[in-house]
Specification:
With 329 residues, the protein is α/β, with parallel strands linked by helices. Helices cover 43% and strands 15% of the residues. It has one domain (6-328): Alpha-Beta Barrel (TIM Barrel), CATH 3.20.20. It has helices at residues 20-37, 58-67, 86-99, 116-121, 132-143, 171-180, 195-205, 229-247, 267-276, 285-299, 313-328; strands spanning 6-10, 41-44, 73-80, 104-109, 164-168, 184-186, 217-225, 280-283, 303-307. It has an eight-stranded parallel beta barrel, surrounded by eight helices. It is globular and about 65 Å long.
Length: 329
Amino acid sequence: MPLPPLSVLDLAPIVEGSTAQEALRNSLELAQHAERLGYRRFWLAEHHNAAGIASAATAVVIAHVAAGTSTIRIGAGGVMLPNHAPIVIAEQFGTLEALHPGRIDLGLGRAPGTDRLTIAALRRDVTSADTFPQDVLELQHYLADAEPGQLVRATPGEGTRVPLWILGSSLYGAELAALLGLPYAFASHFAPGALIDALALYRERFKPSQQLAEPYAMVGANVIVAETDEEARRLFTSSQQSFTNIQRGRRGKLPPPIDDIDAYWTPAERERASDMLSRSFVGAPDTVRAGLEAFVAETGADEIIVAAAIHDHAARLRSYELLAALRGS
C-alpha cells in the first residue's frame, strides 16, 4: 500500500545542552531538508512558557523558515486562536502570504497551549476558548474579500484566503471542521484516544465549502526511523522521558536518549506515557513501513504529519530521510 503525502510537525525543540538559537537554526535546516525530500508541508506550533520549545512566536518562526525555503508549504500547526484577536492573526498570516504567496497554511487550535498562569500573562481569559467557533468565522471574514462599507479590514490579509485548518484531539474539533467545510488535523501524536471516532464524525458530517469540496483529514504520528530497530528505540527514549517528565510536573528541554527506559519510569508512568505515545512508529525502515501502512488502512488518512522528537539533530535529519524513502519505495 502506498503511503499518503507526508508532512513535518516541528516544535523547534530546545534539547538539553543547547539553546533557542540553535533550535531555530536546526528548524530551518530541517525544513530545507524536508523540501528536498518531497515533504508536502512544514508546520510549527504555538506553545508558551515551555523551556523546551522555541516556536512561541509562531508567525515569526514561520517567516524565518519560509524565507529559507522556496516550494514546501509552511504553516502553523497551530496557532492557538483563543490567545489572539482574530484580526491580528489575519494581519500576521496575510503578511506571510504576501511575502510567500501560495505557500502558507494556518492551522487553528482551541486550547491555549499553556497553563493558567501563562494564560493570565497573555492577558487572555480562561473562557476564551468558548468563543472559538465565532473567532474562526471572524478570522475567515478578515481573510476574505472586503465587503462594501466594511469598516475594519485586515491589511495585509483581506482577499488572501489563507487556507484554514481545524486542529483537534476530540470530537469537538471534528464537528466544527465538518460544519465549516475545513480540512481537519488530528493530534494523534500525543492525544490519540478519540482518533477513530473523530475521523468518522468529521467525514459523516462534512459540508462542502468554498475552500474544500470533500473532507480532508491529516493525522499526526510520532515516527522515528533508524538503521536498526534497536537504534530507533533508543532514540525514542527522549520522547518517553519527556512524556514521563510531564506527568511529574517537570517540563524542560528534550533529554538525550538512555539505554534503559524501564529504569527511568514507574509502571504507572509507563502506562500513561505509552498511551499518549501509542500512535508512534519506531524502528528500521521495514518495521516503520509496516506500522504506517496499517495506520493508513485503519484511519484512511489523506496525509500524515510526522513529529520526531530526537535529541541528536543529525539523527533527526536521517530519520526524515529514511521515512521519505519509504514513500518512494
